[in-house]
Design goal:
alpha/beta; 2 helices
Length: about 120
């Protein structure tokens, strides 16, 4: 018996938010995402380039979720977010797996942005 393996397209986290309008102001105005055209009063999606995050006011998800997002240049993003007033929990740190920074959203979710690790040689 041959089983066809289904290809996964992508993963999109669902973050629970206490105030969708406040979250949209932060994700769009500070973090540079755009809102999906189909969004409603209690559920929508924010998108930036190839990354998307669902925001749910109410029943889905829980506080304090961590999400990892791969980016081209985390240090450039750090400069952008610092200028825009993002809540930066940790500036870029070089690790063996990535150069990463941590940003908080209004509901305590942690967004870990990472790019390729810097060559330390």
């Amino acid at each position: 018996v041959t089983t066809t393996r289904t290809r996964f397209e992508h993963a999109n986290p669902i973050l629970n938010v206490s105030d969708l309008e406040r979250s949209l102001r932060y994700y769009v105005g500070v973090l540079g995402f755009v809102t999906a055209a189909w969004g409603g009063d209690d559920f929508t999606c924010v998108i930036r380039d190839g990354a998307s995050i669902y925001l749910s006011q109410g029943t889905q998800g829980q506080r304090g979720t961590w999400v990892w997002l791969g980016v081209d240049d985390v240090e450039a993003l750090y400069n952008e977010y610092r200028e825009r007033g993002a809540e930066i929990l940790e500036p870029p740190q070089n690790h063996t797996w990535a150069c990463e920074m941590k940003v908080a959203d209004p509901d305590g979710h942690v967004l870990r942005f990472g790019s390729d690790p810097k060559d330390t040689a």
